[in-house]
């Protein structure tokens, strides 16, 4: 389709073109310099020029020491970490209900859940078929501690959840305890956005829920007053491109069974102020 035909088919495009063109040339000039069309706003977002400039200026005008100390440079670092933590929690409308543990990426957030969730021979790990491989990896932690695990299929036609099977699996493991259900808010395999109602349904059947929101939050709102998963994994470069190497695990303070496992306590002790 040529440009003229495209504008005929999508007349509203003309109303936004000037704004997009100006943002593209002022903030993302590297695209035209390198002659790129960039569409991956799920896997890794682009950084804007003003972001980089602001960060350079921050580094040039401050001295950041190691946090967890009381010298002036450490205090500045701690202040920035804490205000960032608050901004993240506010962004997801988490209020006072969640901890925010910074991680290297979503994979590390998921690994912390795998390492610290109190799996044992009476517990169960249920996953959707289209989880990211980093969620699949939690299966090995569950297995090592004697827990059972199972995958719930998606329909081959539209790659959406097989609702009958999922309802059955969620209500079947009645006599298990420490049951963890993990699913992606948006699948990186298919791009499908799953209905977040499954969080509440799983809770009603006594499951804890791990919501992998890494691919979802770059282009969707996650409101943690509307839905209340027990763990949420996030990766910031997927949202705003820079810096890489920062993600987060959001942990509901009142976990559905009113416990925080020993492993998780160790993590929180190490990572929170
Ligand atoms: C749904 C989902 N979960 C987890 C990850 C892993 O993210 P990270 O690269 O931050 O470890 C990705 C990465 O593409 C993803 O799309």
TrEMBL record:
Spell out the Gene3D superfamilies in the cross-references: Type I PLP-dependent aspartate aminotransferase-like (Major domain) (3.40.640.10)
InterPro entries given in the database record: Aminotrans_V_dom, PyrdxlP-dep_Trfase, PyrdxlP-dep_Trfase_major
Q: Name one Pfam family in it.
A: Aminotran_5
* Protein keywords: Aminotransferase, Pyridoxal phosphate, Transferase
UniProt entry tagged with the keyword Transferase: yes
Give the Gene Ontology MF terms in alphabetical order: transaminase activity
Domain Aminotransferase class V stretches: 37-259
**Could you identify this protein by its name?**
Aminotransferase class V-fold PLP-dependent enzyme
Record lineage: Bacteria, Pseudomonadati, Bacteroidota, Chitinophagia, Chitinophagales
